[in-house]
Amino acid sequence: MADPRFFTVAGPFTIAEIARRTGAAIAGAVAADRVLTDVAPLGSAGPDELSFLGNPKYLDALRRTRAGAAFVHPDRAAAAPPGLTLLLTPAPYRAYAIAAQAFYPDPLPVPGIAPSAVVDPSARLGAGCAVEAGAVIGARVEIGREALIGAHAVIGPGCILGDSVRLGAHASLSHCIVGARVRIYPGARIGQDGFGFAPDPAGHVKVPQLGRVIIGDDVEIGANTTIDRGAGPDTVIGAGTMIDNLVQIGHNVEVGRGCVLVAQMGISGSTRLGDFVMIGGQSGLTGHLRIGNGARIAGQSGVMRDVAPGETVMGSPAVPIRDHHRQVVLLRRLAAKKGD
Amino acid sequence: MADPRFFTVAGPFTIAEIARRTGAAIAGAVAADRVLTDVAPLGSAGPDELSFLGNPKYLDALRRTRAGAAFVHPDRAAAAPPGLTLLLTPAPYRAYAIAAQAFYPDPLPVPGIAPSAVVDPSARLGAGCAVEAGAVIGARVEIGREALIGAHAVIGPGCILGDSVRLGAHASLSHCIVGARVRIYPGARIGQDGFGFAPDPAGHVKVPQLGRVIIGDDVEIGANTTIDRGAGPDTVIGAGTMIDNLVQIGHNVEVGRGCVLVAQMGISGSTRLGDFVMIGGQSGLTGHLRIGNGARIAGQSGVMRDVAPGETVMGSPAVPIRDHHRQVVLLRRLAAKKGD
Amino acid sequence: MADPRFFTVAGPFTIAEIARRTGAAIAGAVAADRVLTDVAPLGSAGPDELSFLGNPKYLDALRRTRAGAAFVHPDRAAAAPPGLTLLLTPAPYRAYAIAAQAFYPDPLPVPGIAPSAVVDPSARLGAGCAVEAGAVIGARVEIGREALIGAHAVIGPGCILGDSVRLGAHASLSHCIVGARVRIYPGARIGQDGFGFAPDPAGHVKVPQLGRVIIGDDVEIGANTTIDRGAGPDTVIGAGTMIDNLVQIGHNVEVGRGCVLVAQMGISGSTRLGDFVMIGGQSGLTGHLRIGNGARIAGQSGVMRDVAPGETVMGSPAVPIRDHHRQVVLLRRLAAKKGD
User: Fold this and answer.
1) Of A178, A175, A194, A120, which Cα lies nearest the Cα of B6?
2) Average pLDDT for residues C232-243, to the nearest whole number?
3) How far is CA B203 from the centre of its chain?
4) C71, C95 in Cβ contact below 8 A?
5) Is the ipTM of this complex over 0.85?
6) Which residues contact C340 (CB under 8 A, 6 or more apart)?
7) Which one of C131, C248, C319 makes the best mutation probe of the A interface by having the most chain A beta carbons within 10 Å?
8) Under a CB-based contact definition with an 8 Å cutoff, are residues A156 and A171 in contact?
9) Cβ distance C203 to C238 under 8 Å?
10) List of chain B residues whose C-beta atoms are within 8 Å of the C-beta of residue A120
11) Residue C14 CB: number of other CB atoms within 10 A?
């Protein structure tokens, strides 16, 4: 059970209700009106708790689980113990995620503006917004309904935020337009000037950065991540993209829909990503590249050329993953030969 | 045109005025008293707008541009269409930067101290300073004229900041002396203790960090970048150096003048950089190195030895760039041979 | 001498007192009641100052020093000049650290809560705590004695902090339990949601993150570092571990005691480190690994497999350091042969 200092469990829910919400089919020790009080891993779940088998390497834990019910792929149903109610679904982890959201829903913002917040009189906030202590909301800002503006968050003049945005403590926004249900974690920096200047031994000359940052619906932006605004064109983050902590996105970058950018990776100016691109942690992409839909870039890669749709690359410089593996194996073998 | 929610265009300016400010020579369809209202890329600029050709790969865009005027290198003047007024200069991008600053000047700080700011009575601020909501200015701080202290910025006791410094939202400074016209972006951390301790299995023993951070004039420090103060000597950033986002500078590091440090790179303690050193994103330098004037270090390099003035290195471990390319090509070729 | 704008020297101390506090044995030009007023490097120390020889490459500086006293390893005592009082110890740098702490103790927090701080009425603070301007302390927070909560720091509901914790400006905590004497530097982000979701082309589904962050006593956490809370299990940082700036720690990670994690390194979800593991800057560890006690991982390594206790690895992918050196040397040699 999650620590009640920090989490409040909702529910309980009947198995039937869980099945309805997740689209899973009830099987096994059928008990649709049985009541579940919480979620838990297979190994520790009790008879009132809901679990799941996501990874086949936990099949043994499924065999021994005391959970009341579990999401399981139909192909793995045979491994379930007799007392377990099965919730069959082709995507058990996804179903678990939906169920866990039911047990632990995001607390709704408590509407109101903290006395220490500083909200410009020309800003417009929708119904149900919560503005926490010390938040600063600039002139002409527009915020949708039921947004949560965290403690000390700073929103610069003119920014637009959609419904149900959640802005973490200390995040700062400027020059940006943010879609609905976007979550921005603490300390993220969005919309500051890009790194643009004309190099000159007598003193580099700053180039005004005249674009914006446009963020689609349902995007997540991790803690202390930085996204610079465009130099003229905009910097764009497509709907549903997930960005981890400490990521750097340069000016004019365009990220497609549903991409996943893991911690500490960075993208240089004007590079464009298609949809559903996945990039591992600490990877870096140079500027002005095109990365196709569904491309995958392994962690710590250094990408200096375009990547085709669906291609998987790895290494620094990045090459197709099969070539990378060959290079690694070859080098290891040659070095072993030369050794004593 | 830049989004008027966020940007206000100044001007208009005659071509003659632009030529005067940038030192460019008027040629082509000469029309010195023609009025320009904005800047725009070659492809989208209209007859009242100013553009530039920086990169020869856009020569075609120059041929077809409808811009009223453009900065062009004299060698490329022949490609200009008949109606275009040319502003000839050996450094078109630099000239564009100066002109764009004229059209989009940094808004002057609106002098005054926000009611929610907390300014120690012993702090001294020059004329024309703006202190935004929630900023905290400690005891004995001295700030020059026309500085902008962003929302929630925190300046620790004793810090000195020059004229026209711009400190972004949520930046924090301590133990530092900052030159004139320095720009510090949101969330930068400057002057905290370096990572210094005597390792000990019974408990690492912290070594007091007794130095400062000294930042020259006209430096830029990116969002969420961290610069630790010296352990005894100071950490020093030379005038005119440009530092991108999420960069780490360790204690006692000395960075020369006019250097360029791209995002997510890091420098370990006591390493010294000469002037005009350029270092690509995600590179790392170990401690106690000497990097000569004008050296260049490619992105994602790992530098574990001194780099000579003017030398260009790449790779991890970094080697002269020509050697690096050879290694990459060789490995690719050998792996291809061994493959099926 | 450290800049008095920023530092206040304590003392003076007799050599006998210094010897007593550090366990060093007095030798050389014995003068136990001589008074020392400050610490300084060998090269600049004067007769009233205390220094140390940590690294044998400074033996020459020892020979020429004008310092009044110095910590020296017994094996190096012969190199000392005649007028120098020796403080013999097998760990001179550690002894210096303790002595420097005596001369430059951390200023005790000045108890009190700044008028602009926002402290929930249900929070409980121990005696002697200082809460600086704009700090936000949530409901049911518990803080021990003599803690320093920096300007604009934000502590979410329910968090528990031990005695003498020092929380830097702008740090944000949520869902965490923090031991005694922990130092958290400016801008660190601790306890936000981990990067957990079920990937889905129709929209990635967020998985509620139901764990906490548990931080042992005497831990240091650097500026702008991010530590996500667990997904169900906790994220754990063992006592005495030192974490540098801009480090990323994913959900469910367990870090042992006394580890050293250098700047910009990152650890993916569910990886476990033993005690006294040392990891260089910009290294990355993939998820679900086991890193044994005392393992060492060189800077910029990419670790994709378990590392045995005491093993040293390097490279991306990381291999035993001897193998890495062989690979580097071999590749350099082959490429040189192939070159013209």
Assistant:
1) A175
2) 97
3) 40
4) yes
5) yes
6) none
7) C248
8) no
9) no
10) none
11) 16
Cβ contact (<8 Å) for B276 and A226?
no
Q: If you count residue pairs, one on A and one on B, with CB atoms under 8 Å apart, how many are there?
A: 167
Return the closest-CA partner of residue B86 out of B72, B107, B102, B75: B72
Contacts of A161 in chain B (CB under 8 A): none
- CA distances from residue A318 to A298, B312, C192 in whole angstroms, order as listed: 9, 21, 32
Tens-place pLDDT, residues C61-76: 999 999 999 999 999 9
Q: Are C112 and C130 in contact (CB under 8 A)?
A: yes
Which is nearest to C69 in space by CA: C56, C55, C82, C86?
C86
B81-105: pLDDT as tens digits: 988 999 999 999 999 999 999 999 9
**Among A152, A170, A175, A251, the one annotated catalytic:** A251
The residues near A207 (Cβ < 8 Å, ≥ 6 apart) are A196, A197, A198, A231, B93, B96, B97, B100
Q: Do A151 and C136 touch (CB under 8 A)?
A: yes
The sheet carrying A183-184 orders its strands as: A112-113, A130-131, A148-149, A166-167, A183-184, A220-221, A242-243, A260-261, A278-279, A296-297, A312-314, A319-320
Find the residue in A nearest to B92 (Cα).
A198
Phi-psi region of C270 (alpha: psi -120 to 50; beta: other; left: phi over 0): left
Helix (H) or strand (E) holding A285: strand A284-285
Residues of B classed as catalytic: 251
- Please give the angle made by the CA atoms of C192, C193 and C194, to the nearest 5 degrees: 115
Chains contacting A (3+ CB pairs below 8 angstroms): B, C
* Identity of the amino acid at B315: G
**Residue whose token pair is 């962050």:** C213
* Partner-chain contact A192 B170, CB within 8 Å: no
**Cβ atoms of B87 and B18 closer than 8 Å:** yes
CA A209 – CA C281 distance, rounded (Å): 32
Q: Quote the crossing angle between the two packed helices C321-338 and B321-338, to the nearest 10°.
A: 100
Instruction: With beta carbons less than 8 A apart as the criterion, state whether C5 and C25 touch.
Output: no
Are the C-beta atoms of residues A123 and A105 closer than 8 Å to each other? no
Q: Which chains touch C (3 or more CB pairs under 8 A)?
A: A, B
Tokens at residue C89, please?
């110890």
Q: Render pLDDT for B50-64 as a digit per residue (tens, 0 to 9).
A: 999 988 888 999 999
Choose from C116, C154, C228, C247 for mutation: most chain A CBs within 10 A: C154
Amino acid code (one letter) for A140: R
Torsion-angle region of residue C102: left (phi > 0), alpha (psi -120 to 50) or beta?
Answer: alpha
CA distance B274 to chain C (A): 22
Give the span between the Cα atoms of C245 and C265, in whole angstroms.
Answer: 9
Of C305, C275, C263, nearest to C287 by C-alpha is: C305
Sign for the CA dihedral angle at C73, C75, C80, C84 comes to positive
CB contacts, 8 Å: A114 with chain C: 118
| Residue in chain C lying closest to B300 (CA) | C300
Q: What tokens were used for A145?
A: 């309904």
The active-site residue out of C73, C251, C288, C324 is C251
Burial of B135 (0-12, 13-18, 19+ CB in 10 A): buried
Size of chain A in residues: 340
Which parts of C23-146 fold into alpha helices (H)?
Answer: 59-64, 92-103
Q: Residue C284, Cα to own-chain centre: how many angstroms?
A: 18
Contacts 24+ apart (CB under 8 A), A282-287: A282/B282, A282/C266, A282/C282, A282/C284, A282/C302, A284/A316, A284/B264, A284/B281, A284/B282, A284/B299, A284/B300, A286/B299, A287/A250
- pLDDT tens column, A293-318: 999 999 999 999 999 999 999 999 99
Cα–Cα distance measured from residue C340 to residue C324, given in angstroms and rounded to the nearest whole number: 26
pTM of the model: 0.97
Helix or strand (DSSP H, E) at A62: helix A59-64
3-state secondary structure string across A299-320: CCCEECCCECCCCEEECCCCEE
Hey, what amino acid is at B223?
A
